[in-house]
């Protein structure tokens, strides 16, 4: 099976860098396009303060800028070597990721096993676990190594 398109979700956390780097390395070796995808969702606090769609659009635009900066810091060395697209979605993370993979006809989803959820993982399960259970394409989950999270920018 030829891999042509890889979906690489990131929550912009240090721990998500390992999955992102792996996705770009794989994209480079396979000649595949990598769609780096960040999903933002409303917290109850955010919903209480904002009730119009214009604000959602601004939130997404803001996260596009944050995603671009994050990519330069996390995997800037690989960006010129891979076909990369960046997108930001809005919704429930795992559902939005699975929907995006289907919409894009992704051949593979590559994501870290750990992100910024921390203690909530023990209570509600990880986003990666839910993506693995519900995605229609294969999901490669990457466990962050100590080097990838504690070393400098661009570490793997």
Structure description:
The chain has 156 residues and is of the alpha/beta class. Helices cover 47% and strands 19% of the residues. Strands 3-2-1-4-5 form a five-stranded parallel beta sheet, sandwiched between helices. Helix 4 crosses helix 6. The two termini are 26 Å apart.
Brief overview, please?
The protein has 156 residues and is of the alpha/beta class.
Strand content: 15-25%
Largest sheet, strands/sense/barrel: 5 strands, parallel
What's the multimeric state? single chain
- pLDDT average, as an integer? 84
Identify the strand order in the major beta sheet. 3-2-1-4-5
Through-space gap between termini: 26 Å
Characterize the overall form. Answer: globular
List the SSEs and their pairings.
Layout: E1 5-9, H1 17-30, E2 33-40, H2 44-49, H3 53-75, E3 83-90, H4 93-104, E4 108-112, H5 120-124, H6 127-134, E5 139-142, H7 146-150
Parallel strand pairs: 1-2, 1-4, 2-3, 4-5
Helix pairs in contact: 4-6
């Amino acid at each position: 099976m030829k891999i042509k398109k890889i979906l690489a979700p990131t929550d912009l956390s240090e721990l998500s860098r390992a999955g992102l780097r792996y996705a770009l390395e794989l994209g480079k070796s396979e000649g595949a396009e990598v769609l780096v995808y960040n999903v933002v969702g409303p917290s109850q606090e955010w919903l209480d303060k904002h009730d119009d769609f214009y604000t959602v659009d601004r939130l997404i635009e803001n996260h596009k800028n944050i995603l671009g900066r994050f990519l330069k810091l996390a995997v800037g060395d690989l960006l010129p070597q891979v076909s990369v697209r960046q997108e930001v979605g809005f919704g429930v993370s795992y559902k939005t990721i699975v929907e995006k993979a289907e919409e894009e006809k992704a051949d593979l989803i590559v994501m870290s096993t750990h992100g910024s959820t921390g203690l909530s993982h023990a209570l509600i399960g990880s986003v990666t676990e839910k993506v693995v259970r519900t995605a229609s394409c294969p999901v490669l989950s990457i466990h962050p190594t100590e080097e990838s999270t504690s070393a400098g920018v661009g570490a793997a």
